[in-house]
Amino acid sequence: MDRFIQRQSRSFGRVTRCAIITIAMLSIWGQSASAAVTKVTLKPATKIYSGDCPAKIVFNGSITVNAPGLVSYVFTRSDGATDTVTKNLKFLAAGTKSVNTTWTLGGASLPSFKGWQAVKILGPTAIESAHADFEVHCDPALNSAKAAHGNTDWHIDTANEFLFGKDMAGNNTAANFAPSGWTKTHIHVGLTNTAHFYDDKAHVATADDADTTNGIDKPMLFFYAGHGNATTWNTLGNNGHQTDVLLGNLDGGGQLRYYWQCSCEVFAHGPQVCSGGDCDYSAPENFDGTADSVAMRNVFERWGPAIGNDLRMACGVSTLAYCHEGNVNAIWNKFNNEGNSVAEAFILGLGSASVKPLCITRGGSDITKTPLYDHTFTNRRNTSGNGYLHILYAGGTQTDPPMIVWKPEMIPLKLWRVRLIPPGDPVEFKRRLVIKNHVEQLRDPQLAGGGAIVKRNRESGSLSLNAVGAATLKAPRSPKTAAAQRKTALEFAQRIGWLSEDTGSVQVTSLLTASMPNKGDGSQIKRGEKNVVVSIGRRVRNGDHTLDVIGSGGRATITLAPGGEVVSIARTWRQTELTREQVAVKPFERAQAEAMKRLGNADAYRLADWRFGYKEAAVNVVQSELPVVYEFDFVPKDRERLIDFPPQQIEVSAEEQ
User: Fold this and answer.
1) What is the pLDDT of residue 237?
2) Residues 547, 519: contact at Cβ < 8 Å?
3) Which residues, including other chains, have CB under 8 Å from residue 333's CB and lie 6 or more apart?
4) What is the pLDDT of residues 516-538, one digit of tens each?
5) CA 513 to CA 299: how far, in whole Å?
6) What confidence score (pLDDT) does residue 34 get?
7) What does the alpha-carbon distance between residue 423 and residue 429 come to, in Å, rounded to a whole number?
8) CATH number of this structure's domain 35-138, picked from the four choices 2.60.40.10, 3.40.1190.10, 3.40.50.2000, 2.60.40.3880
9) How many angstroms separate the Cα of 234 from the Cα of each of 155, 194, 440?
10) What pLDDT does residue 210 have?
């Protein structure tokens, strides 16, 4: 009996202690009515987000109480949304506990956003944290490109060829085009009066450049092909103007990074140069700093206000522009195959002795830190500053010896057919090749950094090389002259075995720069030089005749920094072999008549120039022989009607069928 009583006593003791603890706990929670929240905070982990979207913004905060209790709270935010489920925090004593939440937002339809989130205490005391302010700035989709045409003549094909290498009928017309892994869209097909898709609401109430489907200010890269002049370009019925455009302004919905335009004179810069009754803006290097006028075009004045702070660059043409499939093929050949930078690919690919492209950007005082030096495309916004405007353009091209000038009566009646064979490396080139970290490199002291990485195309035998130290070069105090750069390039080409008996004309093109304060005037312009490009063409001997090779192939290109260091080289130079088969050559008059039939309105045009020669294709094209061709350049008889009758370049086979 005593043992039973003792056991019951011990059990009762345990129950009593549990009851006491329970009562104490109830007492603590009962104090929640007197507990108070003394402090509540919330802050974004990233206050200003810039990058790919949707963005996930993390918010971290805390709740502090002065006594034990139960705190009920929700998160609330600037768009009016509030938690539908109340959250609870239990405090056993006075103190602080952490809280956190996230908000995922941003995309094509919401490229820029400013908002806040807060912690709202429901009990035991009503209090709300300070707003956790944040911003989201979305980049466009990486490697997204859109192209539009301003006219439904051949320019609609050019816009499609820029993206896909095909004309509107689906024919393969350009071997080089925007990379296949990109997201690409040809917009405005079938539409009319599309100027509002170029216009920005900062200037035009009906503007729609941020439209997710057809707005030109949405992709990473936009390309235009169509008729234009210095202040206007066609937009399928109406016209676009620089004064109505604002590119890459995130607050206005614009996300564009690169604006490329192929049309006559829209980026005209420098004095009006007249010769033989024709006037053009072919000498941007001679700009004198005065206000924009017919006599002196000022691209800083016309395009500077149209460039938003986030746009990386805008590129166009100062002179006439042909804008055919060969032009876009050349641009992408420069970028995809020959390793040229973004701006250089546009300027060198689209340019010629008569076509002068130009690119413009915003930035700080140091032009080398601006997007004009982008080696590849990026969807990131321009963060180089906005105190200055900078341009990059091709200066005058010097050619020595000149291309062969043909006269109609000189055209041969027959030529031996020329077979092509992929070449091997010259002996001198082989001696300089090394394998480093499983990568083939060319070693030479003249290369920036002493070496260059080799990229080959096995089918054509072509190659391109980029110097390993190109990015670290500093501008010299005294840049070499064009003549000195030409000599340097030829000595380098000779040393690696790239000069031979079929070497033809040598072209030297200086890539020049000009910079001025964003709110400055012409007296504050600072001029410079980015690179010098030396292009060595080839000539093929055929019996008693010698023909220049024209086209993207048949040349070696050496790019030199102002101090003479080699920064990149490329060569598409297939080996030739004469066969025993002869080709009958089409007379000049018949070829010209054939070309004029393709003009559409031949009475409005006159022949400006023509060429006769072999055509070697770009590096990525399988080619078994050299075709002989005519190239005709037609310009409008009345230059005042340039926007109605833009120049046309037409290629005609010189082989009799």
Assistant:
1) 97
2) no
3) 175, 176, 349, 552, 618, 619, 620
4) 998 877 789 999 999 999 999 99
5) 13
6) 65
7) 12
8) 2.60.40.3880
9) 11, 9, 48
10) 95
